[in-house]
Design a protein that fits this description.
The protein has helices spanning about 5-15, 65-75, 90-95, 110-115, 160-165, 175-185, 240-255, 255-265; strands spanning about 25-30, 35, 40-45, 55, 65, 80-85, 105-110, 120, 125-135, 150, 170, 190-195, 210, 225-235. It is of the alpha/beta class and about 280 residues long. The chain has two domains: about 5-125 and about 230-265, D-Maltodextrin-Binding Protein, domain 2, CATH 3.40.190; about 125-225, Periplasmic binding protein-like II (D-Maltodextrin-Binding Protein, domain 2, 3-Layer(aba) Sandwich), CATH 3.40.190.10. The strands form three sheets. Strands 3, 6, 7, 8, 9, 10, 11, 12, 13 and 14 form a ten-stranded mixed beta sheet that branches. A two-stranded antiparallel sheet has the order 1-2. Strands 4-5 form a two-stranded antiparallel ribbon.
């Protein structure tokens, strides 16, 4: 089903043009040095299960996966209970900005995003690829003329794709729906990061293949092809990012982060060699 481009762009513009900060009042946990939306609770905005990166467990009250376990450890270190808030990707970022959630998961870096959100240390490196069915003759972006190539609403590459050829682009609310549309033949291609290959439904199918993206393909610059995955917090709440970074650094130094990669079958070479923040713009 074709998603309305106007709606998607409106959501994106609302997200990117909002000022840092919020009129809502945060509550603080007595065991932390930062504020949270609810006392003693870490509200985690997520766009559903994105296994093996983050998993919403049955019942919808707990999370797992690599990032989920990192967040669980961070919450434990700071005496907090994790509360998942499930939305779509654009919605998770907006919920943090509006101070309805404390942290958003699985966010790639861009200068535009950095104006309205504050980044944690990265916890995975990933590369954007083109995904097609093996039966599709892909020779480059022009292969999609008169066809449909998709990405997710609010995803890093959505503006690039729409500026390249908006009539050939379809936006989806999440990976699972988009990937299934590819397998069903409803769309001809996907631009997404390679982590989606390990998730259902693609991990249960052998009908697809990947193709590299070269700088300039679909108007995507080199800086947005291979990038780190971060979590983000509200601009005015740097302290929560600093506390998250401390937990993540400790997990890496103790070998726990590598253990999570192995547990969830992520390539260990995707783990950042050095943990450091990207260029922060908002204050």
């Amino acid at each position: 089903m074709r998603r309305a481009a106007t709606s998607a762009l409106s959501t994106g513009l609302t997200l990117l043009l909002m000022a840092c900060g919020s009129s809502s009042t945060a509550s603080s946990s007595s065991s932390t040095k930062f504020t949270t939306v609810e006392p003693g609770v870490l509200t985690v905005a997520m766009f559903g299960t994105q296994a093996p990166l983050i998993i919403l467990e049955p019942g919808g009250q707990t999370i797992s996966g690599v990032d989920g376990e990192i967040i669980n450890q961070f919450a434990k270190d700071n005496g907090l209970k994790v509360k998942p808030l499930v939305t779509d990707f654009a919605g998770e970022l907006l919920n943090v900005q509006q101070h309805k959630a404390d942290i958003a998961v699985g966010v790639l870096y861009s200068k535009l995003r950095a104006k309205v959100m504050y980044y944690t240390y990265p916890w995975e490196q990933t590369t954007a690829v083109v995904i097609t069915l093996k039966s599709f003759n892909y020779t480059g972006p022009d292969s999609f003329k008169g066809k449909i190539v998709a990405t997710g609403t609010g995803f890093l590459w959505a503006p690039n794709l729409e500026s390249w050829n908006s009539s050939s682009v379809q936006l989806f609310p999440n990976d699972a729906v988009m990937d299934q549309a590819l397998l069903n033949g409803q769309i001809q291609g996907i631009v997404n990061d390679e982590s989606t290959l390990a998730k259902p439904p693609l991990n249960a199918s052998s009908a697809w293949e990947t193709h590299p993206i070269n700088p300039g393909d679909f108007n995507i610059p080199a800086s947005e092809i291979t990038s780190y995955i971060y979590n983000t917090v509200q601009c005015s709440n740097h302290a929560i990012a600093n506390a998250f970074n401390a937990s993540l650094s400790k997990m890496k130094s103790e070998g726990k982060l590598q253990g999570l990669y192995q547990q969830y079958n992520l390539p260990v070479d995707h783990m950042p060699a050095i943990l450091s923040s990207p260029t922060q713009i908002c204050s």
